[in-house]
Amino acid sequence: xxxxxxxxxxxxxxxxxxxxxxxxxxxxxAATARDTADLAPxxxxxxxxxxxxxxxVTDRSAVTAxxxxxVEHFGSLDVVVNNAGYGLFGMAEEATxxxxxxxxxxxxxxxxWVVGAVLPHLRARGHGRILxxxxxxxxxxxxxxxxxxxxxxxxxxxxxxxxxxxxxxxxKVTLVEPAGYATDWSGSSAAHxxxxxxxxxxxxxxxxxxxxRQDPAATRRAILTLADADEPPLRFFLxxxxxxxxxxxxxxxxxxxxxxxxxxxxxxxxxxxxxxxxDGGRSHG
Length: 285
Known about the structure:
Blueprint: E1 4-7, H1 13-24, E2 28-33, H2 40-46, E3 50-54, H3 60-74, E4 79-82, E5 88-89, H4 97-125, E6 128-133, H5 146-166, E7 171-178, E8 191-192, H6 200-208, H7 220-228, E9 235-238, H8 242-259, H9 261-268, H10 271-274, E10 278-279, E11 282-283
Parallel strand pairs: 1-2, 1-4, 2-3, 4-6, 5-8, 6-7, 7-9
Antiparallel strand pairs: 10-11
């Protein structure tokens, strides 16, 4: 049976590729974008199988209205893809409050609002898939992308809890963690802080370590397979490279915890804790 998808950020990149993948196999797509003019090629090619929706995911009431409109139009939802997002490039010290909040509003809160809007519909049917697009940058962090990493680390934590919360309703949730792809994430969609000269050396190192950019069109089959899987994973790397990287990152983390384990466990029974300072019977801690 054809599936009905709700995909945010379908004007370009992964959102556009995955919408095309679904439509070309006969599925239906509620496609959202800030400017529905960007969705005209999808509508022209696939007609009534596409419902174009103007949406800014940071507007919670608009998100709820878009989800309700999609269900009203198609009758149901099967696969929900939280794809809308962008990268904020710059050092933590350089970010303005407005830049920091905007990054979290789109990448984290936008996904949260979509989840809240679609769950009543998915619960009512007793099944559904939610694909939250994180990043390999939701598993480890690099300099110069601290706010972006913060938004994806937050999404990872939310999604792991969400998956446990909704499993009993027949709803499966997956974190999609792409490697480096030739999307517009680091192009015109990106935001940049005003650089401080103190970090020029760090920026030079970042440029030398630029990742390989893979073709986003090559992800179409993988995302369809993931959406169709009877038992999808909680976490799903997309593209080549992340697993090899994690084989280095995770052992290094465990080794560090082990090096400090004696100190960690020693403080649990140490005199500073056992004889914690008190003030009138009230302990401080």
